[in-house]
Structure formats: C-alpha cells, structure tokens
Design goal:
The protein is α+β, with helices and mostly antiparallel strands. Helix content is about 40%, strand content about 20%. The protein contains seven helices and 14 strands. The strands form two sheets. It has a seven-stranded antiparallel β-sheet with strand order 10-9-8-3-12-1-14. A seven-stranded antiparallel β-sheet has the order 7-6-5-4-11-2-13, with no helix packed on it.
C-alpha cells in the first residue's frame, strides 16, 4: 500500500515538471497526489492528450474567428468597390441623359455616348460574376461552420447573420441597378432609333430637293423663294419679266443683289418702250459709279455692291421735281432732284433683268435674245425684284431690308411664273434671309 502511494506521488511529480496548462506560469505549479488501490494502473488520471485536444480546439476556433474577420473585411471592401462602380455607372448614365436632351447637337450626343460602354450586357455580366463570387464565399463560411460544429467548436452566429444580411442587401442593390441599366439601355436604344429616323428623314428631304433641282429647278417652297442666276458676262444670257408697267408718276424699285464682278456689276435691270430704250435703267459699268437713267436723264447713286455679298437696294422717284432717293441695306445713302422732272413713265414696255437695252431695235420690243452689249451685262444673282407705283416710306424699306417684313410690289411682284430665263440663265431655290446671314 505504501509502495503504491509513493509511486503515485513520484508520477505526479513528473507530471508537474511538464509545461503549464492553459497559460499558467512555472512558479504556480502544484503537486497532486492521488491514492491508487493495489493492483490498479498507477498512471496519472489527468491525461495530457485531453489538455492538448482542448488547446487545439481553441486554436481552431481562434483561426476561424480570424478568417471570419478577414472575410468580413474583404466583403466590406468588395461592397465599397461595387458601390463605387454603381456611382460611376450612374454618373455616366446621367451624362448620357444630359447629352440626349441637348438640341443639336448630334455631335455632343455622340461624344458623350463614347464614354458609356457600347454593350451594357458586359456590365451586367460583371455584376453577375461578382454576385457568384460572393455566394461562393458564403458557402465557404457555411462549410467552415459545419466543420466547427463537427469538431465541437462554437461558430459566431451573429457574424454569420450579419454577413448574410449584408450580402442580401448587396444582392438587392445589384439587382436594382441591373434593372435600371436595362431600362437605360432600352431608352438609349429608342432615342438612338428616333435620332436615326430624323437623320434619315432629313437626308431623304435633301435628296428629294436635289432631285427636283436636277429635273429643272421647279417646285419652289413658295413662288417668291427663288433667285435668278446670271453667271457669265454675255449678250445672250438674261431674264425677262412677263408683266409690263402702266403709266406711272412715281415708283419704288427694290431688289436683292449679289455680285463680285469687276469693273462694274453691269445692268441689274432695264425698262424700255418703243422709241426710248432707256426709260428706266439701273447700271454700273467700267469704273463709273452706279447710275439711274430715266428717259435718258442720269443721276449717280452712292451705292457699293461689288463685294460678293447679298445687298438690298431700293430706288424711289417721283415726277414732281424729279426727286429721287437711293437706299442700301435699309439705309438712305443719297438723294437728289431734277431727274426727268414732270415726265411720266410710259406704259407697255419690256422689262429685262441682267441686260441693258440701248442696242435693241424698236418697235420690235417683243423680240428677245441678242442685240445686247456684253460689257454692260449683269454678273451675279438677283432676287425679290418688286416695283410699286408710289414712293415707299423709309420705315417700310428698312423692314424689308431687315427681313422683318415682306411687301410684294403692286405693279410687279417677284414670282416664279412671271419671270422667264434665256441663254443659260437659271432659277434656283433661295431662302433669302438665311442665305444673307450665312454670307455675312
């Protein structure tokens, strides 16, 4: 009995010399003596293997917690990255919306669309891959939980639930963003299709207009929206107004002119009657200033029209004292008197555009073509030639020149059906005020 007790004490002493369990210091070692009956196993009842097993479980649990923390940090970083991606996509979509609302510009819209992915399906696929990666990590955590349950260690359920909630929120946000991207894609497609349709309609309209011009320059938008083109200085190229003039004791002649001919722009118009070819003539030839002839009497006008741009000119005259005024672009530049005073304008003559009639044979005024002087021909473009049998007010002339009012002449009105062309002269469509603004 005593021998067994001694052996048990010695065994306990050896066990006490082993490293401390659960982090106890060496100075706190205790000796434990246990009575063992005779014939029984004298090994120590405290199994070091159990202590080691308990320590391994704690270490595994600690590693699991550290892995969970690392996983949570990774998930947090992933969520932040996804939020950044969502914000970036929202910003680009807003830029695309703002570019689509601007009006025209097609070029700005195109530049903005270049910053957005051409195929939103790529973005959706990327989001789907991210979701799958997050789901794989969640399954990994669940497997770790199962292994911890099998080993007897406790798994932090609160962390797992929090992670699942975060993943659920992220999945909802991603699904919402996917739906928004699909809607934006559909909207962009519809807007692009509408813009393409408008462009095609515009091109078709231009093609139809070009076809009409190639067929003979017919079908102007309105009877007065055309111009007479006289590109060469010849003695056979001119236009003729079908209407003649009545007897007049006053008149106003207005027109738009565009010429870069030098020297002198030539003769924009001339009106001749039997026995008097220069009943009314507007002419600029050689280095002389522009002149107004009435019944072969001459007045020099302070007008300058040879700069290659559109200009609006008006000439007024009254038989009383032969008073005249000259306007350019709505401004009165000169006036005078004693120009064929008390001489009424004779009726039933021929009104020619682009040529001077001094060499014509009268009374054969119905004979057109030829017998003109090429050096006095007008070279350029002419439009909106109108004649009134009265003197227009300066404010009316200014409104016509500024495109704020249009007043057709009560004696001769500019109309497609009233103007004939000969010798290669042609009529072309013209939106006068827009064309003038473009030239300026």
């Amino acid at each position: 009995m005593a021998l067994a007790l001694v052996l048990a004490c010695l065994l306990a002493l050896e066990l006490a010399r082993a490293p401390a369990v659960f982090g106890q210091a060496d100075k706190e070692n205790r000796f434990l003596c246990t009575a063992v009956p005779i014939g029984k196993d004298t090994s120590c009842p405290v199994q070091p293997a159990s202590v080691q097993s308990s320590t391994a479980q704690e270490e595994e649990l600690r590693n699991t917690v550290m892995q969970l923390r690392e996983t949570i940090l990774q998930q947090k970083e992933t969520i932040v990255n996804q939020l950044g991606t969502i914000k970036e996509l929202t910003y680009k979509l807003s830029r695309c919306e703002s570019a689509s609302d601007d009006s025209g510009s097609w070029r700005n819209s195109k530049d903005t669309m270049d910053d957005v992915p051409r195929e939103p399906n790529e973005t959706i696929d990327g989001l789907g891959k991210t979701m799958q990666s997050l789901k794989d990590r969640l399954q990994n955590l669940e497997q770790q939980q199962m292994r911890a349950n099998l080993s007897g260690a406790s798994f932090p359920n609160e962390l797992r639930d929090l992670l699942q909630r975060r993943l659920g929120d992220l999945e909802s946000q991603l699904l919402k963003k996917v739906n928004e991207l699909e809607e934006e894609k559909s909207q962009l497609y519809n807007e692009t299709a509408a813009h393409r349709q408008r462009t095609e309609n515009t091109l078709n309209s231009l093609m139809n207009r070009i076809s009409d011009l190639e067929k003979g320059n017919t079908g102007f938008r309105s009877p007065e929206d055309f111009k007479l083109s006289l590109p060469l200085r010849t003695n056979y190229l001119f236009g003729r107004v079908k209407k003649s003039l009545p007897e007049m004791y006053a008149f106003t002649v207005c027109m738009w002119l565009k010429s870069s001919a030098s020297p002198g722009i030539g003769t924009p118009f001339s009106y001749g009657v039997p026995g008097q070819a220069n009943e009314i003539v507007l002419i600029e030839w050689g280095n002389n200033p522009m002149e107004l002839l009435i019944n072969d009497k001459v007045a020099q006008l302070p007008l300058s029209l040879s700069d290659g741009r559109w200009h609006h000119i008006c000439i007024t005259w009254t038989t009383r004292d032969g008073l005249w005024e000259a306007y350019q672009d709505g401004q009165r530049l000169g006036s005078g008197e004693n120009l064929a005073p008390w001489h009424p304008i004779k009726p039933d003559g021929v009104l020619i555009l682009g040529q001077e009639q001094a060499c014509r044979l009268w009374p054969q005024q119905d004979m057109v073509g030829g017998r003109f002087d090429a050096t006095q021909a007008f070279v350029g473009e002419l439009s909106h030639f109108n004649i009134w049998d009265r003197v227009l007010r300066p404010i009316d002339i200014s409104k016509i020149a500024n495109c704020s009012s249009y007043m057709p002449g009560n004696v001769v009105a500019w109309a497609d059906s009233d103007v004939e062309v000969f010798g290669g002269a042609s009529k072309w469509p013209l939106e006068l005020c827009e064309d003038r603004l473009f030239d300026n």
